[in-house]
Amino acid sequence: MNRNPLKTPSLQDDERFALMKFRRSVSDILKPEHDDHFLLRWLRARQWNPDNAEKMLRESMKWREKWNLDDLESWEAPAVFKDFIPHGSTGFDKDGSVVIFIPFSGIDIWGLLHSASKHDIIKNTIRVLERYMKLAYEQSKIHGPDARKFLVIFDMDNFSMKQYAYRPAAELVITAFQMYSNNYPEILKCCLIINAPKIFSFGFNIIKKFLDEYTLSKISIFKHNKHKWLPAILERVDASSLPVYFGGQQADKDGNPKCLEKICWGGKIPKQFYISEEDSYNNTSTYKTTVVKKGSKLKLHFEIEDSGVFLKWEFKTEIHDIKFGIRSVNQQTGEKVNEVALRRVPAHESEESGFITCHANHKYTVVFDNSYSYFKNKKLTYSVVVTRPLDEVEKSASKIEEKIFDQNENDISCEIKAE
């Protein structure tokens, strides 16, 4: 039965008063599609405190502007994202909500971080999420506001914690969860984590620190027992909307039960996508530490003669953020291009890393800008190098795995809450 998506939600008197106050306070930033149901997401996320909800929403609006979300579809993402970011949907649940499948073990986090910058990985995550948000909004026009929420199924089959021992990988996951928590409140209808191995609870105990109790109450974890998790799925989703692989009826035209036409399963990223972490084209791969004084800038110059090389950076600061950007000049035509837009980077919270592909006969200038700060010097530790792609960059990852995981995963004692 279709429900009226514009119907006013049923609220207690104090909740309705909080909604009225909240709407008045943020009226200057609202768009036509921001109805009561949209505003209630932020109020519920802040326990019906209009002032706290306003702060959260305004900060999120600034965040959306910073990431230029209105033009995300025009962004040309790194090619590696197309076939190696596992996710997809084969339909909707019984209430019209989008069902999202994430074959989590298909994420090659090490490969991703060596094939794209952390900034681009987060940006792509935002774009995927925004696409699902738009689909859910269209569903809500037919099935009502509850259809704006997602039912998410994480398949943890063959999951291993080993690659998350790589510090940038763990930081990336935490950054993604913080981004989600701060900017997409109350969009989760239900999360079913299936085929969870024993080691999964170790990682989940870390992640759940970034989730509130209400969100955690929507998460159900199932061990590797199809007889338990399949009924939980079928209770919410018709078999006709599920892949055969997950106990449903959908398959590709060629009979593939995994529905590869609708779900990307990811996998190990081919090494031709990698850039080097170990070999230096100009032999300047060591980290350096300096102080960028208040009101000043640090500029690093690189003259590139050959094509097919990368300008790669890693840096962090102490206590405060810093602006970072890269510009290039064509030494034949004099044309100037902002390769990486100058922006404030919270490098004191987590290490920033990334790379760009260089053009021949160009001069590149890397800028660490502290000119906006009148009172604070910034201690900066950085490595900026020009590198060539290598066939092998996994040696250091293997060393990390051997050092940290020197015992079989089955020997790690931990409990997992199972349905």
Automatic annotation (TrEMBL):
Tree of life domain: Eukaryota
Cited Pfam families: CRAL_TRIO, CRAL_TRIO_N
Gene3D superfamilies noted in UniProt: CRAL-TRIO lipid binding domain (3.40.525.10), GOLD domain (2.60.120.680)
UniProt cross-references to SUPFAM superfamilies, sorted A to Z: CRAL/TRIO domain, CRAL/TRIO N-terminal domain, Supernatant protein factor (SPF), C-terminal domain
Domain GOLD: 277-386
Domain CRAL-TRIO per the UniProt entry, residue ranges: 77-254
One GO CC term on file: cytoplasm
Name of the featured protein: SEC14-like protein 2
Species the sequence originates in: Chironomus riparius
